[in-house]
Amino acid sequence: MTIDTAVETKRSSDGLGYRAKIGLLVPATNTICQPECDDMRPVGVTNHVARMAPTPRGAETGDMEAYARSLRVSNDFIKDAMDSVLHCRPDLIVLGHSINTFRDGPAGVAGMKKDLEDHGGGIEVILPSLAFLAALQALGLRPHEGKKLSFITPYWPPADEQVRSFFTQAGYEVVRVIGFRRPGAVEIAETPTSDVIAGLSELAKDPVDAIIEPGSNLATGRIAAQACVWLNRPVVSCNVATYWHAVRQLGIRDRRSDFGPLFANH
Q1: Mind listing the pLDDT tens digit for each residue in 22-76?
Q2: Is 79 exposed, middle or buried (CB count within 10 Å of its CB: 0-12, 13-18, 19+)?
């Protein structure tokens, strides 16, 4: 890892988080986001986790109407977790819950970001969907230039359509989505690595500019980094894009090679 503190100022006298303290909000059922973010944590940065109450999804029973309704819940469960983590005075908050950040397109997500930041007294909140847009820009894949994306997701069709719509409205062409249709939130984290590799390999058969994995509870951080090499194109994992965007927004420019081209080159 290359550490660059030349242009940074010490944020606090915190014994470990002297460069930054990050508040990390994760669903109660999520077992992947926290450890992946901890693995990416630069020296002098600390992550402080608050867990959000689970929301019923309907996937466990195959009820797609209930599943679709769950995608429209209010932000109150996020705000409750924010209230908890704000006590440690974080420099920035990362939302480690992705699917709700894709609803209503970029304009709707901008409203969600403002709502959460107003609730937190102005502290910046990093949302996964907007982090993906920043990551694509950094990788040279600008919107409205005919760039093509495909996706592997842990989701069912209503959520897959929400992701597709977001990126289409953002100015990208979505070629294909492979949804694993995991039977429950905890089961997302139990997705076999072989399924992830097979899905990525299948999507790579199409002439796409990048492959995206938008779920924060699907363990793809290091798999995506390796897949960039053997698929010869960017493969962007949710937690990597989100945490990369967070530390860059904090002005921390440390580079590392084990989580792919975003952290290595941008």
Answers
A1: 999 999 999 999 999 999 999 999 999 999 987 666 656 567 888 888 888 889 9
A2: middle
User: What CATH number does residue 86 fall under?
Assistant: 3.40.50.12500
Band (pLDDT 50/70/90 cuts) for residue 152 is: very high
* Residue 2 within any structural domain of the chain: no
Q: Which domain holds residue 175?
A: 20-265
What mean pLDDT do residues 158-166 have? 96
Q: Provide the residue type at 40 as one letter.
A: M
Q: Is residue 174 part of a domain?
A: yes
Give the total number of structural domains in the chain. Answer: 1
Helix (DSSP H) and strand (DSSP E) numbers for the chain: 11, 8
**43 in helix, strand or coil?**
coil
CA distance 59 to 242: 25
| Three-state secondary structure of 238-264 | HHHHHHHHHHHHCCCCCECCCCCHHHH
